[in-house]
């Protein structure tokens, strides 16, 4: 069996160079590769293109890489909770490709499946469609969207084994499984790392064939973006 286990996040990000394209799983702050993001900040690589649903918050998640100005371009669907992201985008300091959320997911899935492009009605008649081929299917206009792939994909799972098989828990099963498929090198950080054969094959979401590196993460904060509680 190929040894895919690396010691920690610092070893997991080795080989990343300036100007590379990275995918980072997660939705809001749920299921983000916290350890890998911290290691990327320490590594100091810059001019990165990051593909992620959003960019965390100002002081957490991808917001850490925005603070240190390591990201040149964001491909994402939601700006929402990150004031720094919004400020850098409006000032022109950060290049941003805003993609409808469903299209972002399908472009990523297509990249992992080896499908170069597909037609979708989403975005027709908006700025999203500018410069893209249009065809009509069943009487409706569709635009051509290209697949997305990355030099490295960073995902975060609940459990994984040393062969790279992954199980995601609840909402963390968002962009993580499809991004694991679309990276040339996929690095998985897990809350619990077990021996091969310990995971129920029927519960595995991502087969180990898609994962090149895996490590057990530490000190997960699992922040909540907006804590809402009922009044007493």
TrEMBL record:
Coiled coil (residue ranges): none
SUPFAM superfamilies from the UniProt entry: NagB/RpiA/CoA transferase-like (SSF100950)
Pfam families in the cross-refs: CoA_trans
Alphabetical keyword list: Transferase
GO-annotated molecular function: CoA-transferase activity
InterPro entries found in the cross-reference section: 3-oxoacid_CoA-transf_A, CoA_trans_fam_I, CoA_transf_BS, NagB/RpiA_transferase-like
Superkingdom per UniProt: Bacteria
Family from the record: Belongs to the 3-oxoacid CoA-transferase subunit A family.
Protein name: CoA transferase subunit A
Source species: Salibacter halophilus
């Amino acid at each position: 069996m190929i040894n895919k286990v690396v010691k920690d996040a610092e070893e997991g990000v080795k080989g990343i160079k300036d100007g590379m394209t990275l995918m980072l799983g997660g939705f809001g702050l749920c299921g983000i590769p916290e350890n890998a993001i911290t290691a990327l900040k320490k590594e100091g690589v810059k001019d990165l293109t990051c593909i992620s649903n959003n960019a965390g918050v100002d002081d957490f998640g991808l917001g850490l890489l925005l603070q240190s100005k390591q990201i040149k371009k964001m491909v994402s669907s939601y700006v929402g909770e990150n004031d720094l992201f919004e400020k850098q985008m409006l000032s022109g300091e950060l290049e941003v490709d805003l993609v409808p959320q469903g299209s972002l997911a399908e472009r990523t899935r297509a990249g992992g499946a080896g499908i170069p492009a597909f037609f979708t009605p989403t975005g027709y008649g908006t700025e999203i469609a500018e410069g893209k081929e249009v065809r009509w299917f069943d009487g409706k206009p569709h635009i051509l969207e290209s697949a997305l792939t990355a030099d490295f994909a960073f995902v975060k799972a609940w459990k994984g084994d040393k062969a790279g098989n992954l199980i995601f828990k609840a909402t963390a099963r968002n962009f993580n499984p499809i991004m694991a498929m679309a990276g040339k090198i996929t690095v998985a950080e897990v809350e619990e790392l077990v021996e091969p054969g310990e995971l129920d094959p029927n519960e595995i979401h991502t087969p180990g064939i898609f994962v090149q590196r895996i490590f057990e993460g530490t000190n997960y904060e699992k922040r909540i973006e907006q804590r809402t509680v009922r009044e007493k």
